[in-house]
Amino acid sequence: MRFKMIDYIYENPDVVRKTLHENERDVRALQRILKEKEIKKVVINGLGSSFTAAAIAEPLLHIHSQYNTLIIDSEEFIYYEDSWIDEKTAVISVSRSGERGAAIEAMHKSKTKGAFTIAITGVENSLLAQSAEIILRTHEGSEIAFPKTKSVSTCSAMIMRLGLAFAKVEDQKAEKRIDILESIDTQISETINIADKQILKILPKIHEFTQIFTVGTCSNHGVALEAAIKLQEASLTVTRGENTAALWVGPVSAITDKTLVVILIMKEDLNLSIDLLKMVKDFGGTSIAICPKTIDVSDYSDYVINVSDFTDPYLAGLVYLPVIQLLTYYLTIEKGLNPDKPRATERLLTSLLPVGREEPG
Ligand SMILES: O=P(O)(O)OC[C@H]1O[C@](O)(CO)[C@@H](O)[C@@H]1O
């Protein structure tokens, strides 16, 4: 049986390109508004995958945005609102559905404190969209699968674009990255085509692990966090997402022969990743390295899945993300589970949706 999730994963390149293209004018307008309002701080919040979409873009925001930036889970808004939210703050709430209580509440509270509010959402008439001053709509189209894939990519690309828009005029590197981002859909597409075949080849050997660790650095740290959400939501496999170094300094001790470690590797973290791969072997675990063909870790890793040759660590998360999505899809169906509607869907939605609201398709 073919599930919707795999089609959605294949739509990634198109919907990322469309989202960036359709919002370009609004992004430039927003750039001016933030200047006029003399904004000093930006607070980005979301829940679950919408939070990890922001986490993937976070390193880029930290190096380019001229505004002090805080990225938090919407449920943690209460800890920061007194010191971060005022009339010089832009609050960006991210929610594909636009129907998550905490993200909407963060927006309402921000408004009462005079902050400027922006929604990144896929649904134009959602509660979140209704409560924001500016809406940046993601263009993933319909996504009925409960564990989201293409909309995580569109939200992340949108936040990356904003991070670059918030750069100072003289920031030449930001200009270059805008160009790279504009054509990143081809790298995403190439990656999906390569990785899909490679995952299918190794699937019989990797589907029985009961514990998974996913790790990466820079934008791939956010991808590792997203992998933990996705793999648990869909395949029901206990998964921990970490920064590569954070797994290496201690938690690596929990690895056993039941553990699969998925390491997202770039040239910047190659040495660290090789050290970790060696440790995984010493502790009896099994590893998958996700990296471009230009990086050869076949001596250290049990399996390798390739991404396209992409060399920007701040944008790379968008290129590595579909590999995690494909891995989730195949591990889920291999277990005989339905990736579009995991068993907890109804129960979770009852507590996630505001009263009287429905999950958009
Ligand atoms: O982007 P949204 O619609 O706010 O959803 C956030 C989270 O809610 C879910 O849709 C359900 O938990 C997750 O898949 C997602 O991570």
Automatic annotation (TrEMBL):
Matches recorded under CDD domains: SIS_GlmS_GlmD_1, SIS_GlmS_GlmD_2
GO molecular-function term, one example from the UniProt record: glutamine-fructose-6-phosphate transaminase (isomerizing) activity
Record keywords: Repeat
Alphabetized Gene3D superfamilies for the sequence: Glucose-6-phosphate isomerase like protein, domain 1
GO biological process, one term: fructose 6-phosphate metabolic process
Span of domain SIS: 29-175, 202-342
A Pfam match: SIS
Catalyzed reactions per annotation: D-fructose 6-phosphate + L-glutamine = D-glucosamine 6-phosphate + L-glutamate
Enzyme Commission code(s) on record: 2.6.1.16
InterPro entries named in the record: GlmS/AgaS_SIS (IPR035466), GlmS/FrlB_SIS (IPR035490), SIS_dom (IPR001347), SIS_dom_sf (IPR046348)
Name of the molecule in the record: Glutamine--fructose-6-phosphate aminotransferase [isomerizing]
